Amino acid sequence: MRTAKATSTIIVICLMIAGLVFLQWHFPASARAEEEKEKKPERLIEMAAEYPSVVVPPGEDVDLDLIFHNGGRSHETVNVRITSVPEGWTAKLKTYKFQVNGVHVPADDDKRLTFKAEPDKDIKPATYEFRIEAETSDGQFNMAQTVQVTVKEEEEGEKEEGVKLTTSYPVLRGPSDATFEFSVEVKNELDKEAVFNLAAQGPEKWDINFKPAYEDKYVSSIRLKEDESKSVDVEVKPFLLAEADEYPITMRVSSGDAKAEAQLNVILTGTYKLDAGTATGLLSLSTRPGKAANVSLYVKNSGSATNHNITFTSFKPENWKVEFKPENLPALEPGKLEQIELIITPYEEALVGDYSVATSIQGEKASRDVEFRVTVRESAAWGWIGIGIIVVVILGLGGLFRWLGRR
Description:
Elements: H1 2-26, H2 29-39, E1 45-49, E2 53-56, E3 62-70, E4 76-84, E5 89-94, E6 102-105, E7 109-119, E8 126-136, E9 142-151, E10 163-167, E11 171-174, E12 180-188, E13 194-201, E14 207-212, E15 221-224, E16 229-237, E17 246-255, E18 258-268, E19 274-277, E20 284-287, E21 293-301, E22 307-315, E23 321-325, E24 328-332, E25 337-345, E26 353-362, E27 367-376, H3 380-406
Parallel strand pairs: 2-9, 11-18, 20-27
Antiparallel strand pairs: 1-3, 3-7, 4-6, 4-8, 5-7, 8-9, 10-12, 12-16, 13-15, 13-17, 14-16, 17-18, 19-21, 21-25, 22-24, 22-26, 23-25, 26-27
C-alpha cells in the first residue's frame, strides 16, 4: 500500500516538472519581449565617434564612423551638424552616397554616419579638433562629440605594415604619345584575407588606371589572402601636350590601417614629328631640259621634342640633279619652321613630259616624304629653229612664185 502511494507521488512530481518545462518553452516570446521593453526608458538617444582621436600623416583624409544609438522605446529623428572646423580643413557628414544633416534612428537600433575631413595640401603637423553637435527634432535631447586629429610626420625608418609593394622598373622613358605600364607586386602581410584599395596621384590631365596582370579590365581594388602576392599593372597615359620632362606618380594601396606607397616615374622625351610642304600647297613645277627650277620647301617640327640632325635626300630620274640649300639642319625646336630651297635640274637630253621627283626629310626619330611633279617642256632653241624653218619655207615659196610669174 505504501509502495503504491510512493509511486503515485513520484508520478505527480514528474508531471508537475514536465508541465513547468512545457510552459517555459511555450511561454509566448512576445510576452517576454514586452516585459524587456517595459524595462527600457521611453526615450534614450546617444551619439559617439567610433574613434574620437586619430593620428594621420600629412595630406591624408580622415574617415570615421559616427554612431547613433537609440536605447529607448520611441523612434527618434536627430539633426546633426559640424559646428567647429579647424583652419585649413574641410569637413562633412555623409552616407555612402549623400551628404546629410540628419538621421532617423528606430527604437532599439543603431545608425551610422561617416565623418569625413580633408586637409589642405600645406597642412602642418599639429593636433586639430572638430566639434559635432546633435539634437532631437523636438530639442529634448542635445549631444556633442569632439573628434581630435593629430597630423604627424613619419619618423625616419618608420614604415607601414600589413602590405608591401615591389616593382622592378620604377622608371620608364618614352615619347608623350606612348602608353606606359608599370608592373607592381602587392603582397598581403596581414594575418587575414583583405581587400586592398588602389589609388594613384599623378600630373593633371594624365590618365592612370589599374589592371590585373595579363588582363585588360580596369580595377580599383584587389583581394588577397593571408601572405598572398599578386601583380598589378599601372597603366599611364600622359597628356598629349605634356612637355619633355620627368613626372612622378604615387601609387597608394590601403586596407584599413594597412597602407603602402610606391613612387613611379615617367620620363617623357617628347613626340617626334615633322611636317613639310610648300607655302601654296602646290607640288608641281615646270622647266626645260638642262635648266634649273627652284621651289621653296618648308620643314616644321610639329612634335614636342627637339629634332636633331635633319638631312635631305632625293629620288630622281637618271642624270637629273637635285640640290638642297642648306644641305641639312643641325636642330629644329618644337613648333619651329625652316625654309629650304630645292633646286631641280633636268637632264639636258630629257624628253618632253611629266616626271616625278621625291624628296625625303629625315630627322632624329621622324621623317617626312614630299613628291613633286616636274613638267619638262620643249627647249627654246627648238622654237627658234622651227621659226627659222618657217621663215625659210615662206621665202622659198615667195621666190618660187616670183620666178614662175616671170615666165
